[in-house]
Design goal:
Keywords: Membrane, Transmembrane, Transmembrane helix
Number of strands: 2
Strand content: under 5%
Membrane topology: Multi-pass membrane protein
InterPro entries: Tetraspanin/Peripherin, Tetraspanin_animals, Tetraspanin_EC2_sf
Number of helices: 9
Helix content: over 70%
Order of helices and strands: HHHHHHHEEHH
Radius of gyration: 26 Å
Shape: elongated
Main location: membrane
Protein name: Tetraspanin
Strand order of the largest sheet: 1-2
Distance between the termini: 19 Å
Length: about 260
């Protein structure tokens, strides 16, 4: 009976981790595809927000995908090697990684849920402070924060954190265009060409003043929250199953060794 369970568990764990390794390899390939040919790869996703992202942000995301793929590939291969060799040391190490990942995920999710309002308010205040102290309003700015904010506003068609009034108190932005006082930066305008009407007399037709970026992020999370929850729960369930079967397999190995010794 033990031999049959041992064999079934071994095959299941190998098959399960082959899927993980395969998904990791796919992620690596996807990341490389995005880096080498971002236009066709983003069009393939059918997600409009991704297709409007700046190339630098897309490339950064691709590297994150590749890193995650490498981790999944190594994780899957480690499990397969551990099970095939029936090494208690490797299996224990594998189990420790799964247990650590589960603990980290559950604790992070719990802390994030408990202190959601606090970290959201803290993040909002930090961005508003950066707008006040670092934003210079230039389209081709060398300022890192200005570049990121401009890119975000253009990509997601929003203006400011809450609205355009967030730019009323800025230390570096001169708010001047051809001798005329401007109200919003160029990145808040719908037309990418610099136009006096948008900069000095913005409205809902020529700019994004009616939509803050905070609301945009909320809308995106709401739109894809079902997918995010489903993916998170799937990963959690798979990790729990992997932990359970790995512990069972390790227990069988230890039990067989004990029987041989006695």
């Amino acid at each position: 009976m033990h031999d049959r369970v041992h064999c079934l568990l071994k095959r299941f764990i190998i098959f399960f981790n082959l899927l993980i390794a395969f998904s990791g390899a796919i992620s690596i390939g996807l990341g490389l595809w995005i880096i080498l040919d971002d236009a066709s790869s983003l069009a393939f996703t059918k997600v409009n927000e991704l297709q409007r992202l700046e190339p630098s942000i897309v490339e950064l995301g691709a590297y994150v995908v590749i890193a995650g793929g490498c981790a999944a590939l190594m994780f899957g291969l480690l499990a397969i090697v551990s099970v095939c060799s029936e090494s208690k040391c490797c299996l224990t190490f594998y189990i420790a990684i799964i247990a650590s990942a589960l603990t980290l995920q559950v604790s992070s999710a719990t802390m994030g849920f408990m202190f959601k309002d606090k970290w959201q308010n803290h993040l909002e205040n930090e961005v508003l402070q950066e707008i006040s102290s670092s934003f210079d309003g230039k389209v081709n700015s060398n300022n890192t924060f200005t570049q990121i904010l401009n890119s975000f506003q253009i990509t997601f068609e929003c203006c400011g954190v809450n609205n355009y009034t967030d730019f009323e108190r800025t230390n570096l932005w001169t708010k001047n265009y051809n001798g005329t006082t401007t109200i919003i930066p160029q990145s808040c305008c719908r037309d990418r060409r610099i136009t006096t009407d948008c900069l000095t007399s913005p409205n809902g037709k020529n700019s994004y003043i009616e939509k803050g970026c905070k609301q945009t992020i909320t809308d995106l999370v709401t739109r894809y929250h079902g997918v995010l929850i489903a993916v998170s729960l799937t990963i959690l369930v798979l990790e729990c199953l992997s932990l359970y079967f790995s512990l069972t397999f390790l227990g069988i190995i230890v039990s067989k060794e004990y029987e041989l010794d006695h």
